[in-house]
Amino acid sequence: MASHLKPLNKTPDALMAVPLHIKRLSERGFNQSELIAQHLQQQLKVPLRNQPLTRLRNTAKQSSLHADDRRNNIHQAFSYQASDKINSIAIIDDVVTTGATADELAKTLKQAGVEKVEIWAFARA
Fold first, then answer.
1. Helical H runs in the chain?
2. Can you give the pTM of this predicted structure?
3. C-beta separation of 53 from 19 below 8 A
4. CATH code where residue 33 lies
5. In a 3-state reduction of DSSP, which class is residue 91?
6. SS3 label, residue 66
């Protein structure tokens, strides 16, 4: 992903990984999106700012739901509390299927004043 993005000169103000709920993170032991974001941060020299973005509730796994149920599942599941202004953010995800998570994250960030939100993912299903 980094080798694809470098020549495009994609330089958002910050990278943020799709957050996991603390319970899911504890069960899994890692956040795959955060691991990808850490690698991209090193390669692209763009700050990784995960702390202001959190998952408020332990939602059902999106992969276990039908497309119609995914938007309801993820509705208002995120919070963004930045201490400083960030104009552009690239959200890092491993796979985008219906786009429900990406849409909800973008909505949350834009409501908080972020002007430009991009979703960078390894795969689109």
1. 2-5, 22-28, 32-44, 67-74, 100-111
2. 0.89
3. yes
4. 3.40.50.2020
5. strand
6. coil
Helix (H) or strand (E) holding 53: strand 53-55
What residue type is assigned to position 49 of the chain? R
CB neighbours of residue 35 within 10 Å: 13
Backbone angles phi, psi at 86, to 5 degrees: -120, 120
Q: Which tokens go with 15? A: 């990278």
What residue numbers bound the domain in which 75 lies?
Answer: 2-124
CA atoms within 13 A on the CB side of 113: 6
d(CA 41, CA 78): 22
Model confidence pLDDT, tens digit, residues 58-91: 988 888 888 888 888 999 999 999 888 899 999 9
| Assigned token pair, 52 | 């202001």
